[in-house]
Design brief:
4 strands, Glutaredoxin, 88 residues, globular, alpha+beta, four-stranded mixed beta sheet
């Protein structure tokens, strides 16, 4: 995982999504980029019609709501091969 984009126009759910992604990324020592995308034409270019949405390395990973911290953790754990319960 090298690039995470949080798509949204700045509503409370979009802000909360960005915050949870940023928090989990920091906990995992993520060295890639996290970008907040608020431009409507850029959001539509991903084919997303509901926000917030999360794009990881160019692929839509989540749409329409605030993901739980555990859900975001699972994306990082899949990348590292860790189960997330013991060795991070």
């Amino acid at each position: 995982m090298k690039e995470i984009k949080v798509l949204g126009m700045g509503c409370p759910k979009c802000k909360a999504t960005f915050e949870v992604v940023e928090e989990v990324a920091k906990a995992h020592g993520f060295s890639g980029t996290i970008e907040k995308v608020e431009d409507i034409s850029a959001i539509i270019s991903y084919g997303v019609m509901s926000t917030p949405a999360i794009v990881i390395d160019g692929n839509i990973a989540f749409v329409g709501g605030v993901p739980s911290k555990e859900q975001v953790e699972s994306w990082f754990n899949m990348q590292t091969g860790s189960c997330g319960c013991c060795c991070k």
